[in-house]
Amino acid sequence: MKKSVFFGAMTAAGLAAGAAAAGTLDDVKERGKLNCGVTTGLIGFAAPDANGEWKGFDVSVCRAVAAAALGDATAVEFVPTTGKTRFTALASGEIDMLARNTTWTFSRDVDLKFDFVGVNYYDGQGFMVPKELGVSSAKELDGATVCIQTGTTTELNLADFFRSNNISYEPVPIETNAEAQQQYLAGACDVYTTDASGLAATRAAFENPGDHVLLPEIISKEPLGPLVRHGDNDWGDVVRWTLNALITAEELGVTSANVGEMASAGNNPEVSRLLGSEGGLGAMLGLDADAFKRAIETQGNYGEIFAKNIGEDTPIGLARGLNAQWTEGGLLYSPPFR
Amino acid sequence: MTTIPDPQGGTFRLSMLLNDTRYRSMTLQAIAALILALALFYLYSNLTANLRAAGLNISFDFLGAPAGYDINQTLVDYNSQSSNLRAAIVGILNTLLVAFLACITATIFGVLAGVLRLSNNWLVSKLMAFYVEIFRNIPVLIWIIIIFTIMTAVMPGPRAFRGDAATSSMLMDLFAFTNRGVYIPGPYFTRGIGGEEGSVVNWLLVIGVLVASYFSARFMTNRANAIQADTGIRPNTLWTNLAIWFVPLIVLLFILGLSWDIPALKGFNFQGGIKIGGPLIALWFALSIYTGAFIAENVRAGIQAVSKGQTEAASALGLRGNRVMSLVVLPQALRVIIPPLISQYLNITKNSSLAIAVGYADITATLGGITLNQTGRAIECVLLLMLFYLVISLLISAGMNVYNNAMKLKER
After folding, report:
1. Which end of chain A is more exposed for a tag (fewer CB within 10 A), N or C?
2. Cβ-based contacts of B152 with chain A (< 8 Å)
3. CB of B73 closer than 8 Å to CB of B348
4. Which residues are B274's β-sheet partners?
5. pLDDT of residue A15
6. CA distances (Å), A41 to each of A56, A77, A243, A272, B24, in order?
7. Residues with Cβ < 8 Å from B98, sequence gap 6 or more?
8. How far apart are CA A276 and CA B251, in angstroms?
């Protein structure tokens, strides 16, 4: 009898420990800081600048969420994660959200119990080779040594691509992008493969970017997006709609420069709802009315974030392509703010 | 007549469990075991309850599913469609390979450095002291990375071997040293069983002949010992032993048609021959040289533990320096050396899990790395890893203890 009470108490304690993970929004507010998982350093997406301040495309998403939820875009603790550690970090609650070039896949969404809140970059896996090799297609890579970041979907895509084309290769598994870059430049591998955006970002950091070419083949779909733990839908909604707010802002022509006057003008009802002057959408999420306004004010809309970090005027020089608004022939299509 | 009750036949009372020294220790041990079991049960139920709360369950089904990734060094057949279990086996074999190689070379380095550190030559002994202090005081992970980085930076890439203006060339046209690894000629049999493809039977034949040679050579040595004991004259066994070792082997290899597959630059890489990958070399060398420094200290301690009187007595009997070492000092020193040597071998095996730093596909990199990542089955993979390292360490320990029992002082 006593025994069963004892074990019952222990089980209850165990369950309570598990349940404490819910309510991330409250935890974040109480802490006054957002713990955001990012890469260990990929210029343009997430990397500390010369002053040690994190900058980049994924970093802006973290900052926008912090601005919306906490009212302070700088209240973010950036946690660098590798391809291997990122999911454990999120599942264990070490980070509140992960914005780290992470591909939305079925098994990650369903089996690993995460929720992808949307896509902030439509990407695909590509190959980079030194120009002097004279390779013009990935199908000519028979027998090549390929550097690859371990623990990523690229590892599986690579195996599938070479198998379906019936050519051989030798993988060199590497932990971080920086190490991969070093190995590739030292000639320890002929090819470096990762998402095409990551390749462009890596190449931009080379001494002679012109000596390396990206092959035309894109061998996979890589929708990259921020993700949160499964089961905490309130928090998932906060991150999802902050991302949608950035995309909608671009569609509606709201920028960091004109966000103030757009909010007070009130001639477009959807803009007013987005910026909190009517509708009370922020309150429905458990935030204040100005939440999205602050996110856009501090970070700019999606287009501004893209142009500032990875756009054509930056060393990374990525075109909008698939990542243009749906009105411009791209795939970005946010549900309406209503 | 009064009868005194027999104390030996007294009935067992519950209080005797605590008061009687015959039972007390057992009672305490039983209580300790119970507490330990309860603690383990608590940890386990906590784990399962938390996993259930997070919507996860423990399942090993993923081991049968296709792994989906490729591995760059496979000792058994493997492709991306093989199961996760197969990938784990590939990893286990790679771990065992590097641990085995490193144990051998670390022992060689260690014994050499340990003996030389006791040398009377000031320069030699100081050099060895320098080696020991430098290598054992810097973490092995740093050594692995340093050696790998130097290898990739200093050695030429395969491209340097290409064309008329090649900046590098193969050593004797047989060996190629590149920053991806070392390519050496690989033996194969042209007239062997199983044709050009070859089969394992050929190699089993070679091993069989070598084992037979070993026993024949041992028989010859024993016979020589017996003759020496009888007559005092030792027959010269050098030539017979050499013949026993080499003649049957050469005849067999000639019958099987031994030939060499010489590596050649084709496409992006050298093809053919045997490739010893850069990660394997870096890991192997780093583990050997690091652990060798520890073994050197064990060897030095073992030799110094043998009383000087033993050496002097042996010299007084007229034995020369090297025979004093091999017949008198080392057999006694081994008794001191072997127990700490076991822990060094265990260290090598466990430290080989740092392989991931250089992309060597050991068990931690395959099962504990890629498989864990791609399936998300962290707890299952880590449990399997713990089980593997535990079993291997216990096996090494058991094997070395058998050797230790054979070597230790036999008291009669």
Report:
1. N
2. 183, 186-188
3. no
4. B184
5. 43
6. 10, 15, 22, 37, 62
7. B280, B283, B284, B287, B352, B355, B360, B362
8. 91
- Between B227 and B3, whose confidence is greater? B227
A155 vs B54: CB contact, 8 Å cut-off? no
The tens digit of pLDDT for each residue in B329-354 reads 888 888 888 889 988 999 999 999 99
Tokens 């893209």 -> residue: A306
Q: What is the pTM of this model?
A: 0.75
- Give the closest-approach CA distance of B278 to chain A in angstroms: 9
pLDDT digits (tens, 9 = 90+) for A234-286: 999 999 999 999 999 999 999 999 988 888 887 888 899 999 888 888 889 89
- Tell me if residue A127 falls in helix, strand or coil: strand
Interchain CB distance below 8 Å, A171 and B269: no
Q: Is B260 helix (H, G, I), strand (E, B) or coil?
A: strand
Q: What is the pLDDT of residue A17?
A: 42
In whole angstroms, give the CA distance from residue B286 to residue B298. 19
pLDDT band at B166 (very low <50, low <70, confident <90, very high): low
Identify all chain B residues contacting A107, using CB atoms and an 8 Å cutoff. Answer: 375-376
Nearest to B189 by CA among B173, B176, B200: B200
Residue B7 has what pLDDT?
54
Q: Position B369: which residue type?
A: G
Contact between A58 and A39 (Cβ < 8 Å) = yes
Question: 3-state DSSP call for residue A111?
Answer: coil
The answer to whether the CB atoms of A150 and B370 lie below 8 A apart is yes
- Rounded Cα–Cα distance for residues A116 and A174 (Å): 26
| Closest among B73, B131, B133 to B98, alpha carbons compared | B73
- Backbone φ and ψ for B382, nearest 5 degrees, come out as -70, -35
Instruction: Write down the domain spans for chain B.
Output: 186-261
Asked if residues A301 and A250 have their Cβ atoms less than 8 Å apart, the reply is: yes
pLDDT at residue B332 in the model: 87
Neighbours of B147 (CB within 10 A): 19
